[in-house]
Amino acid sequence: MAVGIFDSGLGGLTVLEAVANRLPSQTFVYMGDNLNAPYGVRGTSNIFDLTTKCIERMWEEDCDLVVLACNTASAAALKQIQEKWLPKNKRVLGVFVPLIESLTKRNWGDNSPPREVDVKNVALFATPSTVASRAFQRELAFRAIGVDVESQACGGLVDAIEDGDLILAEALVRSHVDALKRKMPKPQAAILGCTHYPLLEKVFKDALGENVEVYSQANIVAASLSDYLNRHPKMIGSNKLKNIFITTGDPVIISRRATQFLRRSVEFISA
């Protein structure tokens, strides 16, 4: 049995690296829907259809547990997947809840009533679809009160990262941070609400300034997944096997880009 890590593109590799480092004996299957990336400009129904198709492909690789390392899919499709589509013997987890639990300093799985927390002004940087879904605000409201969230849709940023144009990507980060600051001049915390964005975390931090705490998801999700597997040991694979990388795009091109991302050799196979 393996744990599946899914993203619309290459951003989820930041999560894969973190969880693989934290859980070295666990086998992982990574799948990127690179043919249809980015998801951030797609409608909810389309995102649901694309995401579930990829989950079914990962089931073929013995992934009873799949982590949506894609904020857009988590925001637009996870609730419907869990409530109306998922078989009882399968599990699909998202990336929003661990992030919010970290932001609000609640333990994993704490379902107590919402309460006041230290942070009051939060900047959310995410794809247009994630911002439109208001999933972050919905999940936050279950856990905290009195928090003002200002969202900034970062159009074009995922495309620039996927294309490897880091000069354009850095310019877009600074432009989006400037736009956010015009709406919220002094955020206390900033959420990088897309798993592509940690690749530019230093640029976000520089643009936001030293007094803003930046929350990036990879290590937070890794800690949450480790806790989940401790509580659900049946989801842990019995033997460490070679990790598998799957793409709906051109495996040669995607392998080359992933190798550049991770700075080590990565070989994708075709879905």
In one word, what is the shape? globular
Low-confidence stretches: none
Please count the beta strands (DSSP E, at least 2 residues each).
Answer: 12
CATH topology of the largest domain: Rossmann fold
Report the end-to-end length measured between terminal Cα atoms.
Answer: 19 Å
CATH class of the largest domain: Alpha Beta
Tell me about this structure.
It is a single chain. 44% of the residues lie in helices and 17% in strands. It is an alpha/beta fold. It is built from 12 helices and 12 strands. It is globular, with a radius of gyration of 18 Å. The two termini are 19 Å apart.
Summed up:
This protein has 271 residues and is of the alpha/beta class. 44% of the residues lie in helices and 17% in strands.
